Amino acid sequence: MKAYSIFDDFADDAVLIMESEGIQLTVHPLGMPRPTPEEMKHILESYDCVIIGTSQKITEDMFENIHEPRIIATASVGIDHIEIPQDKQKLISIYNTPTANAQSVAEYTIGCALSCCKRLHEGSNLYLEGKDNKSLSRKPEDLKNKTIGVVGAGNISKKVMEFARFFDMKIICWTAHPDKHKEFAEEGVFFVPIEILMEQSDVISVNLPNIIETQKIISEKLIERMKDNVIFISVSRLEVIDFEALLEKAKANKNFYVCMDIDVSESVLEKIKGVDNVMITPHIAGGTIETRKRMFLETAKQVVAHKNIYEK
C-alpha cells in the first residue's frame, strides 16, 4: 500500500506504525504549501491512501479517474470537507479521529466559561484604560452551582460534562438520541428538550456535527429563549447556528457572552468589530500539540487496521 500524508510534521511514531506494517508512506515536503486542488487530485490518483485535515478539501471532481479502492484518513472529527461522488462511494473508505480532540476542545470550552465568569477580557481592557474593578459591567462569578446546558452527547460533550462536575455545576443535556446515552443519567445528567435547555442554562456548550439535521438548529427562536446573561460557547461549524440572531442578542445585552471557535471569514470579522462580549477564535480549540499527536497516531492505527483486514 502507498500512502501520502499532507502533514509535513506527521509524527515519527505514527510513521513508524505505518512503515512497520509495510506501508510506503510519503510525507509532504517540510515547509512546502499544502497541495492545491489540482495537486490533490493527482495525489488521490497516485496513492492508495491519503491523510488529510479539515483545511484540505476533497471535492467530487477529484475522483474523475479513480477506479480502484482508496482510503481517505482525516485527522479531524468532522468529515464535511470530503465530498465523494455517488458512483464512487463504494470504492472509498473514510476514517476520522472522533476521540483525539475531546480533551483539548473540552478544556477550551471550560476555559471560555471561566474567562467570561471571571471577566478576564473585560478586566484586562479596563486596566489598560486606567480603570478599576468598579467599572466592570458585572461582578466576577463562580461556575459552582451554575447550570451548564450541553447540546450534543458525543465525545467532546462527555468530556465537558466531566469537567463541569469538577466545578460542581448542574448539568442538563439535549441530544436527538437520549436513549443511546442512558449512562448519563447515572452521572447526574438530566435530558431536557432543547427549548428548556436554552431557558435554564447559565452556560451553553454546543458540540454538534455539521449535517443537514443540525444546520441552523440553534435558531433565532431558541436564541430568544436564552437568558440575557448566558455564556454561549460553540465549537461547532458556523452553519449550526443562526449567527445573525446570536450577534444581535449579544449587541443588545452586554452580559450575554459569545465564544465561538470557527473558520473565520472577513465577513464575520467585520460583524464582530467593536462587540466586546463576542470572542471568536480561528478554529484552534482542538489544535493543541497533544491533540495533533493523538490524531496522527489514531489515523495511523486505522490505516494499518484497514490494510490488515482487506489484505487477509
Describe the structure in your own words.
The chain is built from 11 helices and 12 strands. The chain is α/β, with parallel strands linked by helices and 312 residues long. α1 (12-19) packs parallel to α11. β7, α6 (183-186) and β8 form a beta-alpha-beta unit. The longest helix has 22 residues, at 289-310. The protein starts with a strand and ends with a helix.
Question: What brief labels describe this structure?
Answer:
single chain, 312 residues, alpha/beta, 5-stranded parallel sheet, 12 strands
Question: What is the CA–CA distance across the termini?
Answer: 14 Å
Classification by helices and strands: alpha/beta
Beta-strand percentage range: 15-25%
What is the radius of gyration?
Answer: 22 Å
Main sheet: which strands, in order across? Answer: 8-7-6-9-10-11-12
What kind of sheet is the major sheet? 7 strands, parallel
Number of helical stretches of at least 4 residues: 11
- Sketch the topology as an H/E string, one letter per element: EHEHEEEHHEHEHEHEHEHEHEH
Low-confidence stretches: none
Measured as a percent range, the helix fraction is 25-40%
Which geometry do the CA atoms define?
elongated
What's the mean pLDDT score?
Answer: 93
The tally of strands reads 12
